[in-house]
Amino acid sequence: MILLNVLSLTNEFEEESFGGAGTAATGMLYMLDRLGVQQTVIVPRSDWDVPGWVLRGQQINVLGLPRNSYYFGYLGMIKADVVLQEFPELSQEWDLIHSHAINFTSLAYTLSGGIIPILYSVYSFLREELGDRPEPELQAQFIIQEELLMRCQHIQLISQSEKNYLAGRFPQYLSKTEVLPIGISWPSERWQPGNENEFLYVGRLIDYKGVEDLIQAMSLMRQSGRQVQLNIVGKGADYYETYLRKLVQSKKLGALVKFHGWIPSSEVRRWMGCASGLVVPSRREAYGLVALEGMAIGTPLIASRAGGLVDLVSRDCALTFEAGNVTQLAQTLITAYNNPSLLRSLAEKGREQALAYEWGQLAPKYLPILEQMRQG
C-alpha cells in the first residue's frame, strides 16, 4: 500500500554526502521508505557523466544528474527547463514536494504550480550560519532561501534554537513551522578506549565550528602540564586549513595535533569508537549530529552549549562549556583528562539518551506531518 507519493529534492543523498545534511536526508528518506512512502529523489552526482535512474530501498526511485553546467547553473541552481524537457515524467500530481536544499527551488515552484504543497526541511539558516557576509553570491543564496521560506506550505526546523532564530527574523512563518529533530541510524560500533588521552574532532573546518578555539585550548592545556593528542578529521577551505596548521605550528603543537582530512563515515565511527573523548567546540550550531553520533557509539563527549547542541547534550551526559570561551574549554579538557571515570559514566547516559533519536523512534513524528500536508 502506497501511503504517499513524494518528490524529494536534495543536494546530498547516500554516497553523494558531504556532511550532516547528507546524512540526515539519507536517513530520513530511508525511514519514510520503511513506512511505505513512495519517493522519487533527484540528486546531483559528482562522479556521473550521464543522468540515470536507480532503485534504492523498497521504493525509492533516484534520478542522479551529473553535477555539471548543463543541469546546474549560477549558484549551483538546477535548470528546471532542461530537466523537465529530458524527464517529462516528473510532471505529475505528487502528494507533496519535499525540498532539502535551495538548489532546486525553481524546479519545486514549477512542479508545484501553486497547488502541490512544498515541505522545506531547513538544516541551517544560511544568513545566520555564514554571518550575513556581503559577497553577492552569498546574498543571492540568502534571498533564495528566504523566498522559499515564504512560498513553501510547511517548514521543518531541526532544533529549538533554529525556531528562535525564525521567530526573531520571520515570525510570520511560525504558524507553518514544526520542530522535528533529525535522527541517526543506530551504529554497530561500541566505544572501547584505545590510546589514553587522545581526543577527536570531527567536522568541517570552518570558523564557527570552533576548531581554532580547540587548538588554543590545547595550548593552554599543555602550559598546565597536561599533554594530550588531538586528531582533527574533516576538510575546509584551503586558506582556512592553512591558517589552522600555521596556528598549530606557532603554538608548538605539531607533535600533538594531527590533521587527517576527510575520511569515510565507517572510518569516522571507528575513530569515535576508540577516542578518549569527542570534542564538539562549535561557536554556533544548528543541531549537532556529530555529537549525537558519538553519543550513540558511547564515546565520551565534551561539547559547547551552542544552538542546537543544547537540545541534544546536557550536563547529565557530557562535559559542557560556554561556546567561544577558550579558557573554559581548556578547563573542561583538563577535567576530562583528570577524571576519565567521570567521562565514562556520562557517556553511558549519553548513549541511552541518543536512542531516542534513532530514525525508527522518530518515525511516528514525521508521518502525521506529511499526511496532514496532503490533506491540505
TrEMBL record:
<feature type="domain" description="Glycosyltransferase subfamily 4-like N-terminal">
    <location>
        <begin position="18"/>
        <end position="184"/>
    </location>
</feature>
<dbReference type="Pfam" id="PF00534">
    <property type="entry name" value="Glycos_transf_1"/>
</dbReference>
<dbReference type="GO" id="GO:0016757">
    <property type="term" value="F:glycosyltransferase activity"/>
</dbReference>
<dbReference type="InterPro" id="IPR028098">
    <property type="entry name" value="Glyco_trans_4-like_N"/>
</dbReference>
<dbReference type="InterPro" id="IPR001296">
    <property type="entry name" value="Glyco_trans_1"/>
</dbReference>
<dbReference type="Pfam" id="PF13439">
    <property type="entry name" value="Glyco_transf_4"/>
</dbReference>
<dbReference type="GO" id="GO:0009103">
    <property type="term" value="P:lipopolysaccharide biosynthetic process"/>
</dbReference>
<keyword id="KW-0808">Transferase</keyword>
<feature type="domain" description="Glycosyl transferase family 1">
    <location>
        <begin position="193"/>
        <end position="352"/>
    </location>
</feature>
<protein>
    <submittedName>
        <fullName>Glycosyl transferases group 1 family protein</fullName>
    </submittedName>
</protein>
